[in-house]
């Protein structure tokens, strides 16, 4: 019996010694991975024969720091750019042969350029020594960057014209490996290569503007063995289309938000060219999203009939457009008549009384205006009649001769002519009588001479 127990102890010791000699066995190491910047990736390391005091670790070979990224489940790196984005996800199980299997996955979220490089999965022995698993536990992470398009106008700020030369730019930030192959196209067709120098396989391409390029979208396709990504640019654009969006009610005591909503064919900047003076002086405003959004706080009565205006401009060109809005203060909203509160009822009655007073004032003003208008009309008519009478009298007096004027006394002393009207002497009849008398007077000397 004693011999049997010694045999079991001996066998256990031999197994432990073999484990210390052979160490942890890798069943599956990590694989190379390529992912776009901002994505989430995992590197997997599956092992067995892991002793209780042994730890799986991850290292970043291309990193400036040679220390461990993780030890067991703990994040070991002190780099703040990695600590918040790195984690270890573990799993363990018993395989079909009765072996204990452990999985240690290194997870990286929001992938960045600094994450690119070679990673090694290894372990730390009980004595503190590090040991890797050779080539079976190495993998490379490739961070794929999206291309960025742009236009270089060589310092010109005015709108492009046919015949001018520009540079179409297509590139990725950072040292991406492998380097992408760039190719330009427009409107889903390959551009005539004779228009370019150097060839379109370069990230920088010279283009001579043509009239047909107006509003035309040029597309750059950046291709690698891992992906094909595109970006677009319009070198011959139209001015941006701008509209003003209001959020909230422009009423006293309220807060209002205005959004400068612009659609353009190039990157833009935003500015607010008109804002109420009281708002500026009292600093009752704030801006966000690169001045695209304007907040006005605590609307006041003096803000009534002021205006706001926003402008959107292209960064590379002096091309802009604007939108404005006149701000009219809304009247106070009357409380709901269904509210049972007696105070609200009194407020409603007062509001009705104010409305009645306003109506009465309007009626009085209209009546006064009508009276003034009628008075002016009557005065004009009276003045016209008097002027007509004066002109008629002047015409009549102009027909009377100097001799007729001498008989004025006779006319004045003469009895009223029965043919006259309304007590006015008949001047024509009196003049005829004077003419007869004068004729007789002229004939009298001739009679005396005959005698």
What's the quick description here?
With 451 residues, the chain is α+β, with helices and mostly antiparallel strands. It has helices at residues 2-22, 80-83, 277-281, 342-398, 402-406, 408-413, 427-450; strands spanning 25-28, 33-36, 41-48, 55-60, 68-71, 74-75, 86-94, 100-108, 117-124, 130-132, 138-144, 148-152, 165-171, 181-186, 189-190, 196-197, 204-208, 218-223, 228-233, 241-247, 256-263, 268-274, 285-288, 293-296, 306-314, 320-327. The protein contains seven helices and 26 strands.
Can you offer a commentary on this structure?
By secondary structure, this protein is of the alpha+beta class. The protein folds into 4 domains: 125 residues, Immunoglobulin-like (Sandwich), CATH 2.60.40.10; 86 residues, Immunoglobulins (Immunoglobulin-like, Sandwich), CATH 2.60.40.10; 87 residues, Immunoglobulins (Immunoglobulin-like), CATH 2.60.40; 53 residues, no CATH class. 27% of the residues lie in helices and 33% in strands. It is built from 7 helices and 26 strands. The strands form 6 sheets. Strands 2, 4, 5, 6, 9, 10 and 11 form a 7-stranded mixed beta sheet that branches. A 4-stranded antiparallel beta sheet has the order 1-3-8-7, with no helix packed on it. Strand 20 and strand 21 form a beta hairpin. The longest helix has 57 residues. It is elongated. The relative contact order is 0.07.
């Amino acid at each position: 019996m004693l011999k049997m127990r010694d045999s079991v102890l001996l066998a256990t010791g031999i197994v432990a010694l073999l484990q210390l000699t052979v160490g942890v066995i890798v069943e599956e190491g990590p694989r190379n991975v390529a992912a776009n910047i901002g994505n989430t990736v995992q590197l997997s390391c599956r092992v067995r024969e892991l002793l209780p005091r042994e730890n799986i670790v991850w290292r970043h070979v291309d990193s400036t720091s040679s220390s461990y990224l993780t030890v067991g489940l703990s994040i070991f790196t002190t780099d703040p750019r990695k600590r918040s984005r790195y984690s270890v996800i573990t799993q363990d199980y018993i395989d079909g042969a009765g072996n204990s299997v452990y999985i240690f996955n290194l997870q990286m979220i929001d992938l960045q350029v600094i994450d690119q490089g070679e990673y090694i999965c290894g372990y730390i022995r009980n004595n503190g020594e590090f040991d890797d698993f050779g080539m079976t536990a190495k993998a490379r992470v490739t961070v794929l960057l999206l291309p960025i398009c742009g236009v270089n106008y060589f310092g010109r700020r005015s709108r492009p014209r046919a015949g001018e030369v520009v540079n179409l730019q297509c590139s990725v930030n950072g040292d991406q490996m492998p380097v992408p192959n760039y190719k330009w196209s427009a409107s889903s067709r390959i551009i005539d290569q004779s228009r370019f120098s150097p060839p379109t396989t370069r990230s920088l391409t010279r283009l001579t503007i043509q009239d047909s390029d107006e509003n035309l979208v040029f597309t750059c396709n950046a291709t690698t063995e891992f992906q094909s990504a595109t970006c677009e640019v319009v070198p011959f654009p139209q001015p941006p289309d701008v509209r003003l969006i209001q959020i909230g009610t422009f009423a006293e005591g309220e807060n209002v938000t205005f959004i400068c909503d612009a659609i353009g064919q190039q990157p833009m900047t935003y500015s607010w060219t008109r804002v109420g003076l009281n708002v500026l002086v009292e600093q009752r405003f704030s801006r966000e999203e690169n001045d695209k959004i304007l907040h006005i706080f605590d609307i006041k009565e003096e803000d009534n009939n002021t205006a706001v205006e926003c402008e959107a401009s292209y960064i590379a060109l002096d091309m802009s457009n604007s939108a404005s809005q006149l701000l009219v203060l809304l009247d106070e909203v009357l409380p709901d008549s269904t509210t049972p509160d007696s105070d609200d009822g009194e407020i409603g009655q007062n509001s009705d009384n104010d409305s009645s007073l306003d109506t009465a004032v309007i009626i009085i003003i209209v009546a006064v205006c009508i009276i003034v208008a009628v008075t002016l009309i009557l005065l004009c008519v009276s003045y016209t009649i008097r002027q007509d009478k004066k002109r008629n009298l002047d015409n009549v007096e102009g027909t009377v001769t100097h001799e007729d004027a001498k008989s004025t006394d006779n006319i004045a002393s003469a009895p009223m002519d029965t043919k006259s009207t309304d007590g006015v002497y008949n001047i024509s009849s009196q003049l005829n009588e004077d003419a007869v008398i004068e004729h007789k007077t002229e004939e009298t000397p001739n009679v005396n001479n005959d005698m």
